[in-house]
Amino acid sequence: MSTLLITHPASLNHLNGAGHPERPDRIRAIESALEQEKFQTLAREQAPLADLETVALCHPMEYVEEIRDAAPKEGQVQLDADTSMSPGTWEAALRAVGGATRAVDEVLGKKAANAFIAQRPPGHHAETVRPMGFCIFNQAAIAARYAQKKHGIHRAAVVDFDVHHGNGTQEIFWSDATLMYCSTHQMPLYPGTGAVNERGDHDNIVNAPLRPGDGGEQFKAAMETRILPRLQAFGAELIIISAGFDAHIRDPLANLQLVEEDFAWATRKIMDVADKTAQGRVVSVLEGGYDLEGLSKSAAAHVTALIRG
Ligand SMILES: [Zn+2]
């Protein structure tokens, strides 16, 4: 079985406006990096549109319909200070969810070894009824609930190494003992959540904040001592990665100092846990990453690890 790469050109039609860091070139940079010879073994699929009931696994239908109805015919509509919709956003957001759930189908159906979804907008800041931080629907959280509902698995986990805390995934998972959320992130930083004492109603939230200036050594220690043991003990049957690459040293939005190889290392470590508890099943969803060189090289290192290259 191959690693599956899911993309869709609709991801390029979601526009946040001139100068916004969350831009279509992010996807172009990743797709270009994944055209190298060594990625020829990837299976490639285009993301389908998610149906609204699937989005509603984590967001009430009224919220989904409010987002649909907010989409402008032209220009832009602000959803919060840094999250907006353009005419292409609705389709891009539905296909970002559809890509994640298609990956779940392919990986749990044993058609693919694991998968990476290179789409936008990102999702981990989106709460149950609140778009924020460039995010509209929380595709990582939806993928977890979808795997439970459609494929009958009991436990799923999201591991999030984006430099920002995934407040949305934490909020959605908070009271659900069958879902675990684990995060490394810079603190203090947007959105302000993610302290160690935020643990969920069932001790199912694991936060491992890092300090501004921390690099690979501190990141690996946080993973090895705080996150990976808890992840393994939880026994997830599917591990979803919220793969943000904005902890890269080149990234303009934060102050961690990771390099490409640190993301590859984390990917391999998460895969080791998945091999033990989840039959190796990993679905990785793109979140942040705003320096095009840091982003594309890190995504390439991440996918190299997924293909066990
Ligand atoms: Zn981020």
Question: Would you write up a description of this structure?
Answer:
- The protein is globular.
- The mean pLDDT is 98.
- The chain has helices at 25-33, 52-55, 61-70, 89-108, 139-151, 167-173, 216-234, 260-277, 292-306, and strands at residues 3-7, 43-46, 77-80, 83-85, 114-117, 156-160, 179-186, 205-210, 238-243, 282-286.
- Helix 1 crosses helix 9 (292-306), helix 4 crosses helix 5 (139-151) and helix 8 (260-277) runs parallel beside helix 9 (292-306).
- Helix 8 links the parallel strand 9 and strand 10.
- The protein is 37% helix and 16% strand.
- Strands 2-1-5-10-9-6-7-8 form an eight-stranded parallel sheet, sandwiched between helices. Strands 3-4 form a two-stranded antiparallel sheet.
- By secondary structure, the chain is of the alpha/beta class.
- The structure holds zinc ion.
Describe this structure in a few short sentences.
The chain has 309 residues and is an alpha/beta fold. Helices cover 37% and strands 16% of the residues. The chain is globular, with a radius of gyration of 17 Å.
